[in-house]
Design a protein that fits this description.
Helix content: 40-55%
Number of domains: 1
Number of helices: 8
């Protein structure tokens, strides 16, 4: 058996769902808070009566967002622990680490107790990916927009994401939790 070319280890990218970009922008701006404190502040800020709509066959149902994210009291700790871990990773990984910003579920979505609101593409995913791409230099923007995966997914580095989201011009508005299929 001969020895072939050494294969580079494939590194799974850090995945950010488009409509979660504003959380990471806020995390970068909140320099006085640790990742755990930021996760707690974000959780506390979710309105208890916030609703989201899902299609169930021909019927549209309105569900409670807090229940979908946290589930029962004994399940809520998982969401808190996972978001804290994700924010710590975001802050500690090197700038050249690959990042995928997409319409697909990320670790924040996967940490939801029920996660029904995460199943469908959110209205803000594509919008927020476009806002991010429009903050890039024209040459990089054109290259990303030429990708067959655009606008559903872009790949860049953590350093680029941190630089863009740290800019004061980054749009920090929260995205509504309503699926685009409605």
């Amino acid at each position: 058996m001969g020895i072939g070319k050494e294969q580079e280890a494939v590194i799974a990218p850090f995945i950010i769902r488009g409509h979660h970009l504003h959380h990471y922008a806020d995390l970068l701006r909140e320099k006085d808070l640790s990742a755990a404190e930021f996760a707690s502040e974000t959780i506390i800020g979710i309105p208890q009566d916030e609703k989201f709509a899902v299609r169930d066959g021909e019927e549209i149902k309105e569900l409670n967002y807090v229940g979908d994210v946290f589930g029962r009291v004994d399940q809520a700790r998982h969401f808190s622990d996972t978001t804290t871990r994700v924010y710590c990773e975001f802050l500690s990984l090197p700038n050249d680490f690959p990042v995928e910003i997409s319409v697909s579920k990320d670790d924040i979505c996967n940490s939801c107790a029920v996660g029904r609101h995460c199943l469908e593409r959110q209205r803000g995913d594509i919008e927020d990916i476009n806002v991010f791409v429009n903050c890039l230099k024209p040459g990089i923007r054109k290259k990303l927009q030429a990708s067959p995966e655009f606008p559903d997914k872009i790949t860049t580095t953590l350093g680029v994401v941190r630089r863009i989201l740290s800019q004061s011009s980054w749009d920090r508005r929260p995205t509504p939790n309503v699926s685009s299929s409605l």
